Amino acid sequence: MVSRRVWINVALFVVFSVVFLSQTSVQDYLLSRSPRERLQRHFAEFERKVGRDPDIHRALEGVDDQDRSQKLQEMSRNGTARLDNAALLERAPLMSALYSQLSDRACADAIRGGAPTENDRAELEAAFLRLEADFVAKWMDSLQKAIRAEARATPIHLVTREEMRAAFGALEGRIGKAAAMRVDAGLTQRATDAEMAWAGRTIYAVARSLPEPHGSALLRMMTQLAEETPASTPIPPLVPHVP
Fold this sequence. Notes:
Layout: H1 4-22, H2 26-31, H3 35-51, H4 54-59, H5 68-80, H6 85-101, H7 104-112, H8 118-130, H9 133-151, H10 161-175, H11 177-186, H12 193-206, H13 214-224
């Protein structure tokens, strides 16, 4: 099954592009044909900025220009699981904000980890435009941390069964037994879109209020529920093609 990080990091790269768009001149903005075209035009600038990070630059050595975008996306996808507890906790309110802007179906699609549909992409773009610049800047920083963690091959901590039992115990103490059981049931592949979306939104909304390390254990679990993407699985384009 495709990792959820494939899906959500498409969104992360779009956010980066929006930030660079806001830094261009008014004339350049007005001469562009569409928002999607502007995203494409400024994505190269994003890649140059990230590539100036020494660790990321070394990881990109020998990568052809045409493969650079895919390589960065692979690094961001894999690097999310390598983030430390502090970075995962910083990322939680950003994920909560994004999920609050998505429909149950789009939110569940993101959690399940399948390739985004056209409707999912449209919802993501609309959500990013509604979220404020401060959100974009913080998410941009989170994405770069994930890429850097992958470049440095930061060890991945796999959440143990004991850690999960303790984390769900803390969650139950915070939201009650019935709600905690609902979260648990909502993270199975049999859950409906509404059930899964509710579970994901609840974890990202509540995790930072739990005593550590229980909050970060739940967040780390969210990065490890899906299997890694097989090498043969194509990764969706970072920015939709503009004809």
